[in-house]
Every structure is written in structure tokens, then in C-alpha cells.
Amino acid sequence: MEQFDLSKLKGRPAFPFETIAVAISFSPRLEALLSESKRISDKLEANLILIHVGEKTPEKEARLDKLISKLRIDENKCRINWMDGDPVDTILKLCKLNVVDLLILGALSKEKLLKFYLGSIARKISRRAKCSVLLLTNPTEEANRIKRFMVCAEENPKTIHTVNTALYLAKKFNVGEISIVKEVHVPGLAMTMAEDSTAPEANRMRKNFAEADEQELHSVAEKCDKDGITIIEKVIKGKPGYTVSKYARDKKADLLILNSPDTQLGLFDRIFTHDMEYILADLPCNLLIVHSRPH
Amino acid sequence: MTRLTHHELIVFLLAISTMLIFSRVAGELGKKLRLPVVMGELLVGIILGPTILGQLFPDLFTYLFPRTGNVTFAFDGLFSLSVVMLLFVAGMEVQLPLVLKQGKVAIYTSISSMVIPFFTGFAVAWYFPSLFGQTPDSPSHLIFALFLGTALSISALPVIARILMDMNLFKTNIGMIIIASAMVNDLFGWLLFSFILSLSIHHGETMGLGYTILYILGFGIFMLTVGKRIIDKALPWVQTKLSWPGGVLSISLGVCLACAAFTESINIHAILGAFIAGIAIGDSVQLHEKAREIIHQFVTNFFAPLFFVSIGLKVNFIQNFDILIVSIVMILAFIGKVTGASLGAYWGGLKKREALVVGFGMNARGAMEIILGTLALNAGLISAPVFVALIIMALVTSLSSAPLMRKFLD
């Protein structure tokens, strides 16, 4: 594989998604995954790269050609890469090499316990990718069903880029409204208030925290490029990652959007669960992890 | 079966009642002066104990807190239960994912704020044992040096959290770094202390050093992986199908006591079981915030006052006040912790002044140091003058933390 020039990636904005890669595995869900990817790339006017890591056989080639033709994928805007090697490393390298903006993967909603700790390909890529990753839990051949967007607005400088990416996608998908959700978790608060707070003091403290969080969320919404799209703001209490996942499931969100992790996640982050690992452990819906590249 | 007599039961109940009521009054008065509640509780212990009541009204003191008989056993059981409960709620607030989330600066701060004070304390106790009334050839020389290192490296999450809350720093970057680092300090501090206690209490018994470490690590890893998963699965059922809040309260405390009994049975102190059970339950995503508050309220307002008041009952603070030991412990505590935490924060990427704020924030030892000192005194690891020095150090570091932090805040 040729030497990669990192300068092409550095400072590249989180969106627009000009190049989309799809990792394909010739599973029964291949047609649905390709169909969904085609719809997304058409809406975003992006080039499509299909990546298969594994043996290139005439049967696989024929099946893929047939599907490309059936789904009317524009061959001028689509390229197929047949690769050998470790699936995770190969896909990630190829994404870098081709300056991929969005990588689409099919993923099961829930992994078995052992597989969760060891890591499936889709989840391993999600933890390490240097581009945005879209995990489709239930790809379908039907017309666009991704309508309810929910953004996890954690306290992080990257959040503004993530919300703007969600707004860009909402516009492309003709979605008029998105929700941005802030999770509030204050470790040590219960302990601090148990000792020497009167009931009014404890209530006042809680109220102050709630108001500050609402204000912070509102300021994120204010800074975004809404362009006619309505933003619904919501503050929820609970452990980060787990709470937003549960909320997205309760509200039947179609797409949960969040920041990429600040560091590559490892086994340690699954044992002492990182916020994102709660979501990856049991995907509530399709998941978009937005990677904002530092300038 | 030995029972408390009619008279002993009256004395026992009266003593508990006195401790609870007086400590609450002192705590509320202290609050008006912005002093930590634990300070009021300690003061009540000193007033009711041999230092003041024992000197002024020895008959009343002996009546309320007899030194012999069944009441002492009842007190001993109650105070042991109290310390187990205190460690359980301390563990409930240790959330290791927070440390990883805070990243490099929290990891550097937590490591440096443990290692530097530990070696400062260890080195002084090892090379100058006579300063603390120890001799170099004493069998407890190494254990005492290890203990002093641990005592200086521990932080007190409850008092630190309160200080940060009062200073409106709780949810800031600096606040979260301090909280996360204090959690790590507490975790490793209690692990190390359990190991030291195990070495000292069961000295000469069958269990070797390797087994002690293996058991501590094995139990910790089991509880934080498999145990935590079982708790995650069980808590939703407990919180919805059983009486509220009785169900979650009794099951959580039951798990805590079972873990404490287990660690005690394998010759590691009961506090470790309670502390690890607290981490496993407190870190569960399924634990309702209200349930957490109820457990805290129960322990903090019943067991904590009894425990902290009981400290003053054990020791005569005036007789055992040694200015040299107090000064040495104080200097070591300030130098080790402030330097260690500040350097860690600075190496982690904070500016100098911010790093110093972290350093002084981490310096508050509060209740955790007092619990540690009391357990060490009970185990015969330290002398009464060293214990008194540790208590004074815990109070001074807690009181000085906020004003010193303010000096370096922009």
C-alpha cells in the first residue's frame, strides 16, 4: 500500500461527506446495505468506494456486479476495492488513503458478551476510525426511513462540529427537526449533599446545576448553523452513554449522532466502561460517529 | 449466650443517643462557621471522651462509655459496622471511567499525587524511625513506613467534593481533574492499606505475601467485572419489584456486608470488601440517583457521626499531643501531596497556577485520613501520638485547602 499523506486529512472539516466507503462482507444483508448506502451517497452527492477484505472469487464478483446494476449505482462514481489482510487495519488504511469522509458498516444491535469484549469488526473500526463512521443496524431496501435525528451533545469542543454535521445531514435528508441531548452526571453530588445540606440548599444546588446545563446546551444550539432546521433541546440525567442510548431507544430515534472518542478505545474502556461503549454494547438505532479532524 | 443486661442496654442506648444528638448540634454550629461536619463530630468525641469529660467528670464518663463489660463489645461491633458502611459509601463514589475520560492530566495527577507523597512518607519513616517513636530493628519498622507513605498519599473525596461545590468549581475542568484523581488515590490507597493491615494483623499466619496480593487483586477484578455485571442485571429488578426504597437499601447493604465478611474471612480486612462492593454498586448504570442519595443519607447521618465521635472517646488528645510529630506529619503532608499533585497536573498539561490549585485541592485529607488513622491505631500499627498528628493533619489540610486554592485561582 502506498505511503499516505496525512496533510490531506489534517484540518479537513467533518462535513460535507464527499467520499463514502462501504465495508461489504457478502452476508445476507449485502443488498440492503448497498441499497441504503447508495441512497445516502445519492443524497449527499458523494463518491462511493466498496471495500471487501477477503478472497476475490468469480462468484463474489458476479454477485456484486449484479447488485450494482440492480440498484443502479453510477459506476462512474463507484469503485470496488478487493483487499487481503486484517479486515480492521485494511479498511482503516484504505479509508485514510482515499480520504474517506464517511465509512458505512452493517452492525448487529447487540454483540454476545465475549464478542463485545474481544470486539467485532464493526465495533473495532468504530473505536479506531479516523473518519466518521455510520453503523447501520437494520439496513433496508425500502426508501429512506432515517427521519428522527438525535445528537448527543456532550461537553466537548467537538460537539459543535457534530451538531453542524447533523444539521447538514438533516438538510440533505429533508428532515425539519433534530434533537440535541445533553446528559448530566455529577459524580460525588449525592455524597456531598448527604452530609450537611438542608432540603432547600440541596434543591437550590440541583436547580443551579440544571439551569447551568440547560444554558450550556442552549449556547451550543445557538452557535450552530441551523438554516431553517428546528433544534429541540433536552437535558437528561444519568450516566453518559448509557442514558442517551436508553433515551434514543425510548424516543424511537432513527439515527443517534455522537462525537468520535478523543482517544482510541481499548479493552480497558470496555471494562471501565467508556461512554461510547455503553452505546456500542447495545445499539439503540443507527449510529453515526462524527470524526472532527483537528486543525 | 452473653446478653446486655437491663442496665447495660440503657447505657448503650443513652451513649448512642448522646453521640448522635451532640454531633448533630456541633455539626450544625460548625456549618455556620463553614467548617466541615466531621470537625464538629470529632470535637464532640474529644469533649465526651477522656480528654475533657474524662478529666472533669470521670464518673459520668465511665458511666456513659464504660471501658469494660458487654457494652464495650456492643460498641466495638457498632463501630466496626460503621467503618464498613463508611468505606462502602466512599467506594460508591469512585467511578474509574471518569478518570479515563479526563485523560492524560488526570492520570498524571493521580499517579504523581500518590507516588510522591508515598515515597516522601516512606523514606522519612524508614530512615528516621526514631522521630515517630519507632526503632530500626523493630519488626513493625517496614509496616510503619509503608503505612505512613499510604496515609500521606490518600485523599478525601467527600471533603474535596464539598470544597469544590462551595467554590463553584465542581463541574469545571479543574474540579473534574481533582475529583477523578482523588478517586484513584482513594482506590489505590485503600487497596494498599488493606494489604498493610493484612500484613500486620495476620503476621505469622499461614497466608503468604503472594497470596495476599493475589486475593486482593482477584477479588477486585472479579467484583469489578463479573460482580458488576450481576449487579447491573439485578438492580433494575430490585428497584422495581421490591419495596422502595427498602429493597435497594437492604440488598445493597447486604451485598456490602457479604463482601466485607468475605474479605475478612480470607484474612484481608473487611473494609476492602465493603469498598470494592461500593465501587461495583455505585458504578452501576442501573442504580437510581435517588437510591444513591438514600444510601448516603443513611450512612452519613447515622454511622458516620457514631464513628467520628468514637475517635475522640479512644484517645486523650492533650496527653498524646506531640508537637514534633505533629509538625513532621504536617510538613510531609503538605510537601508530598501539593508537590506531587501539582507536578502531575503540570506534566499533564495544566498551567502552573492551575496545577497549584489542583495541588492544594488534592491536599484535603478529611474523613478518609481519620478512618485510616483509626484503623491503624486499632490494629496497633501506630502510636497514639502519631494518630493524634494524623487527625490534626487531616483537619488542617481540609480547612486550608479552599483558601489556598483561592490564592491561585484567576
Structure description:
- The complex is a heterodimer of chains A (295) and B (410).
- Helix content of chain A is 41%, strand content 20%.
- Chain A has 11 helices and 10 strands.
- In chain A, strands 3-2-1-4-5-10-9-6-7-8 form a 10-stranded mixed β-sheet, with helices on both faces.
- In chain A, strand 6, helix 6 (159-172) and strand 7 form a beta-alpha-beta unit.
- The mean pLDDT of chain A is 84.
- Chain B is mostly helical and 410 residues long.
- The longest helix of chain B is centred in the middle third of the chain and has 33 residues, at 209-241.
- The mean pLDDT of chain B is 87.
- Chain B contains 18 helices and no strands.
- Chain B has 2 domains: 6-81, no CATH class; 83-408, Na+/H+ antiporter like fold (Up-down Bundle), CATH 1.20.1530.20.
- Chain B is globular and about 65 Å long.
- In chain B, helix 7 runs antiparallel to helix 8 (141-153).
- At the A-B interface, helix 7, helix 8 and helix 10 of A face helix 6, helix 9 and helix 14 of B.
Distance between the termini of chain A: 26 Å
**Largest interface by Cβ-Cβ < 8 Å:** A-B, 29 and 35 residues
What's the tally of helices of chain A?
Answer: 11
The total count of strands of chain A amounts to 10
Proportion in helices of chain A: 40-55%
Element-by-element helix/strand order of chain B: HHHHHHHHHHHHHHHHHH
Helix percentage range of chain B = over 70%
Rg estimate of chain B, integer Å? 21 Å
Physical arrangement of strands within the biggest beta sheet of chain A: 3-2-1-4-5-10-9-6-7-8
Which stretches of chain A are low in confidence, meaning pLDDT under 50 for 5 or more residues running? none
Query: Oligomeric form of this entry?
Result: heterodimer
Task: Provide the CATH topology of the largest domain in chain A.
Answer: Rossmann fold
